[in-house]
Description:
Blueprint: H1 10-16, H2 21-24, E1 27-32, E2 38-45, E3 49-55, E4 58-65, E5 73-79, E6 83-84, H3 88-95, E7 107-119, E8 122-131, E9 134-149, E10 155-166, E11 185-199
Antiparallel strand pairs: 1-4, 1-11, 2-3, 2-11, 3-6, 4-5, 5-7, 7-8, 8-9, 9-10, 10-11
Amino acid sequence: MGIFSRKTSTSVATATAPIDPALAALTGEYAIDPPHSSIGFTVRHAMVTNVRGTFGSHEGTLKLDGAAPARSTATVDIDIASVDTGIDDRDAHLRSGDFFDADNFPKMTFRSRSAEQVGGTQYRIIGDLTIKDVTRPISIDFEYQGVATDVYGNERVGFEGSTQIQRSDWGLTWNAALETGGVMVSDKVKLTFDISAIKRV
């Protein structure tokens, strides 16, 4: 799902996509459940492999209107200090001024501005992503994964999505040249979202 991609058929799909009765009933305010959700990233390292990481501490709210998806909204707040790639030294470097500067900018945030159904159980959310002191628009495509009542009686809803950004657009420009050509860290970063949210009473 590209950040800058725009499908010419989006408006047609949005206007004609049938509303599943089960989705139409999916309306209300939901709180993201961090222990059962994952917000992560993948970035090319040294031109030959991928490094994957997650942000273990985050919170957010989904306000869903299944009958009129355009009325749905999403907010997410992510604690930068919770970044985890499995290597302590690398995580410390990511938290430093070379990258996120977590001491001065402890949060990464997303605030939706619009939402639409693009077909079946696929949805697109457009909103503002803020990293450090830079706010830029991104587009995230999500796939509805279903709804269920857990063993504690909580109504849960699931969504899975991703998008690609260029980190330099948010001032994350640190890099190192390789002797064989190329750079240590790709400018392109894939963000992934695997969300389980609980309906608030």
